[in-house]
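Subject: for your reference before the review

Hello V.,

The reviewers asked for a structural picture of the protein, and I figured it would be easier to keep everything in one thread rather than splitting it across files. Below is the amino acid sequence we used in the manuscript, unchanged from the supplementary table.
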Amino acid sequence: MRANESMRLIRKLHSPDSKRVLQAVEELRARGWLSDGSLNGMSLQYVHLEGADLYRASLQGADLQHAYLDGANLSLADLQGANLSNASLRAADLSQANLAGAILYKANLHGARNLSAEQLSQASRLRSAVMPDGSRYDGRFSLPGDLALAETDNVDTRSAYAMAEYYGVSPETYKRGQALGRRARPGAGSIPAGAGEMKRA
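And here is what came back from the structure prediction:
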């Protein structure tokens, strides 16, 4: 009974009607299914969750490719290992969200709020992502998923010029990103509006 009801609500998340989707989110929350792992590993491709309250949602390993999460509240959400390739997270609140192992390939993070360098440095892939300040990701975190794919594509990961081409940025931008990334890894704060520096906590 519980499984049937939870699946009914999860299916509602795929509705093109945003009102129905938001109602489903609230129903899932009321029953405790938003945070208990019921959504872990679920296929949620192309879902319209704009403005949804996903506070403390557990979405470990969920397939959120091409999902619309603009303006969503993802604070303290568990997105560990989630696939957010091509997802739109414009102006989403990602305060303390767990992005460990998350795939953010071509994700749009423009205007994303409360997103730290430390969080992003734990992701698996960020290649071709749009950063909170609107710039293209420059490879500064040397993420394992990005590097593994580069090696698969026979990119010389030791060459700044080859890696700059891989990330689609200029060699100067790549080198600057690498220098900033090294400074940020021990612990950093919010991604700033400008592409040049990162604020520390």
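For the response letter, the relevant points are probably these. The two ends are 47 Å apart (CA to CA). Residues 188-201 have pLDDT under 50 and may be disordered.

Happy to draft the paragraph if you're swamped.

O.
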